[in-house]
Structures are given as C-alpha cells and as structure tokens.
C-alpha cells in the first residue's frame, strides 16, 4: 500500500481507537463510581421491587435517579441497554493498529537486534502468543480456587505480570515491549467482557425472563472481573501513550523495572480513587496510602531516569561538526528528512529533520535524548555503532561546536 495511504489508515485507526476507548473507559469508570455511591433505598415500594441501591444526581440541567436491583427486576423491560460494543471496538481497533504498526513492520518497531536476534515471524508469533497466553493464564487463575481469595489472587497476578514485563523487555525493543504489555492487559480486559461479564449477564436476563431467580454467581464473577478491569485501566492507558516517551522504554538494561513501577503506580492511584468513591461509608475519610504509594513510585522512576550530567570532554577528543554531520546523515537522515528515504515514512517522525546543518544545530537536545536512551535509530536499522553514538553525544556535551 502507498505510504501516504498507510499514514491515513494509521491516523483513522488511532482516532477510532481513541474514541471507542474513551466510550469504554468512561462507561466503566462511571459504573464503578455509581456502584460505590449507591445507598439502600428508604422507599418501601423500591425495597419490595428488589432495588438494592439508588442514587440521586444532577447533570446537564437534569435530575437523575439510577437504581440497582439486588439481582433482577421481576419483569425485564423491553428496552435494555448493553455495554459491550465499546469494549469490543476498542480491542478490534487496537489490534488492527498493532498489526499495522508492529506486525506489518516488525523490523521497524518490534525487533531490536541488540536485545534479541529475532526473525520477523518469530517476533510476531511471540507477540500474538503473549496476548493469547496472557488471557488464558489470567482466566484460569480467576476460575481456580485461588480466585476466591482476592488478596492472594492480586499478589500472584502482580508477580506473573512482573515476569511478563521482564520477558517482553528481554525479547522486544523497549517500545514493542511496553506496547505489548499494554495490549496483553487490554486483551484480559476485553476477554473479561466477552467471556465472563456479558455471558453472565445474558444468563441472568434469560432467567429473569423465564420468571426464575438469576444465579447470583454470575453477578459475583462479573463484579470480580469488572473490578480487575478498573485497576488495569490506568496502566493500559500509560502503555498506549508510552511510544511517545523514549526515556521510559529506552532506559538501558532496566526498562522492565520502569514498566513494572509505572504500572504499579497507575494501579495504586486507581485504588485510591475507588476507595475515595466509598468515603461516605467512612465519614468522608479516605486513607491516602495508595495515592502516596503511586506518586512515590512515579517520583522514584523520575529520579532513577534522570539524565547524567554531561561528562567533561577534552576538546581534542571532540569530533568536528563536519564529521558529526556525516554520522547523522548516514544513520538518521533516512527517516529524519523532508522527504524520508526509509520505507513506511511519508514525513519525518515528530516532524524532526536533520538533513541540514541548521536543523541539526537547532535540535541537539532532542538528538542527545534519543541517542542516550538508545531509542533511535529505531531498531538500529541504520546500524549506528556505539562509537558513533558516543561521539555525537560527546560533541553535544561539549557545546555542539561548529
């Protein structure tokens, strides 16, 4: 396909993914909030109808009174809205993006020979196996006796996810590893909707339609998976945008620790929000511990990734600008040019072009950040050597003499 059309496909898929993702996450967050704010009705008629909780709210100039039944109403209404296409559309558009960007060009974004010498077929197979295997293991744990102990299940899941983070960062480029970790969590989330929550809800609706009492186990299972989904959400959102921040996934030798710490931070912050929803049960008080843990982890990562100050470099050992420009021309300009020569690029990534002396000198800080993180060249397609990388960094640290 023409590179220009590929750019449009990429844009439209991302736009779609963002729109449906907002719809899914917005509905999910709202219902978590709603569940935690419901109060037992005082109206005897509502109690007799089987209403277990209600809430009064005002929004957009209107008053709302949502109610939640303990199991199901005596008669299923003809108009019953189901929340599932938001989840399915988010996963389908995300997987389409994954295929377009990573599986369609594995040597560009997925494979880093300095991490693991994978063939394109091997890389794609590992990526798909991660999504499928992640769901199968997670679902099996939830269905096992361990799934009845929420705290033990959370500990085991955290350990397995940490192992997955380490494994992905050991075989893929940092960018590909972070993205696949998020895609694995996203697959678990939509798997919960497709295989557990919606089938359980269908069974409950069918039982109520027959005049039978719905099986409460379906409600319990759906509730468990919905809670998991809300704690997975912030880590997944972080992974969705991580490809824009090479200083995270490009951290040499320990990017897997960055991945684990940031995901734990996101989950902890979400725990605090959920607990805050239930503050009315504790006289308006919420322990700040989870929030402190989340912010503390982020602060620790910020400190750990802080760039080292430029090393003092003898003037005699700094390459002349002409030689630096030759290196950049050979290793960077195939992508970062007004008219990129690298297949798959219509415009320079992030609009950064290094095809003239003026453009190089204007963007030395950005060049240094990408070289230090080893995020560029992407997958080291142009085979920049460590000596060349060090030479350009030393030139910049010496003040970019020209």
From TrEMBL:
Gene Ontology MF term list: electron transfer activity; heme binding; metal ion binding
UniProt xrefs under SUPFAM superfamilies: Cytochrome c
Transmembrane region(s): 12-33, 82-103, 123-141, 153-173, 179-198, 231-250, 256-274, 286-305
Keywords per UniProt: Heme, Iron, Membrane, Metal-binding, Transmembrane, Transmembrane helix
PROSITE patterns in alphabetical order: CYTC
Top-level lineage group: Bacteria
Cited InterPro entries: Cyt_c-like_dom (IPR009056), Cyt_c-like_dom_sf (IPR036909), Urate_ox_N (IPR010389)
Domain annotation Cytochrome c: ranges: 312-400
Coiled-coil stretches: none
Name this polypeptide is given: Uncharacterized membrane protein
Organism: Hydrocarboniphaga daqingensis
């Amino acid at each position: 396909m023409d590179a220009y059309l590929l750019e449009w496909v990429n844009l439209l898929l991302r736009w779609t993914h963002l729109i449906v993702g907002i719809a899914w996450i917005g509905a999910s967050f709202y219902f978590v909030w709603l569940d935690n704010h419901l109060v037992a009705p005082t109206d005897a008629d509502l109690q007799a109808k089987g209403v277990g909780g209600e809430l009064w709210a005002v929004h957009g100039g209107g008053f709302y009174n949502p109610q939640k039944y303990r199991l199901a109403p005596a008669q299923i209404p003809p108009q019953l809205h189901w929340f599932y296409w938001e989840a399915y559309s988010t996963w389908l558009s995300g997987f389409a993006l994954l295929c377009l960007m990573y599986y369609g060009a594995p040597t560009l974004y997925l494979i880093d020979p300095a991490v693991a010498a994978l063939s394109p077929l091997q890389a794609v197979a590992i990526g798909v196996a991660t999504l499928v295997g992640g769901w199968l293991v997670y679902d099996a744990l939830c269905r096992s006796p361990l799934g009845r102990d929420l705290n033990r299940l959370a500990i085991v899941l955290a350990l397995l996810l940490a192992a997955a983070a380490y494994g992905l960062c050991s075989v893929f480029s940092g960018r590909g590893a972070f993205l696949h970790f998020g895609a694995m969590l996203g697959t678990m989330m939509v798997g919960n909707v497709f295989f557990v929550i919606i089938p359980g809800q269908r069974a409950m609706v069918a039982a109520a339609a027959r005049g039978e009492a719905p099986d409460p186990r379906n409600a319990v299972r759906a509730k468990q998976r919905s809670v998991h989904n809300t704690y997975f959400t912030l880590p997944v959102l972080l992974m969705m945008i991580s490809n824009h921040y090479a200083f995270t996934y490009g951290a040499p030798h320990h990017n897997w620790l960055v991945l684990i710490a940031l995901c734990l931070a996101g989950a902890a912050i979400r725990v605090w929000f959920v607990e805050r929803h239930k503050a009315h049960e504790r006289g308006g008080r919420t322990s700040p511990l989870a929030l402190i843990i989340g912010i503390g982890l982020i602060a620790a990562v910020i400190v750990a990734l802080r760039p080292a100050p430029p090393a003092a470099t003898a003037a005699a050992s700094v390459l002349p600008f002409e030689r630096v420009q030759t290196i950049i021309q050979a290793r960077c300009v195939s992508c970062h040019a007004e008219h990129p020569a690298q297949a798959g690029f219509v415009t320079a990534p992030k609009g950064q072009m290094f095809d003239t002396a003026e453009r190089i000198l204007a963007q030395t800080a950005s060049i240094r950040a990408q070289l230090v993180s080893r995020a560029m060249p992407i997958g080291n397609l142009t085979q920049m050597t460590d000596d060349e990388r060090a030479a350009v960094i030393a030139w910049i640290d010496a003040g970019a003499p020209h």
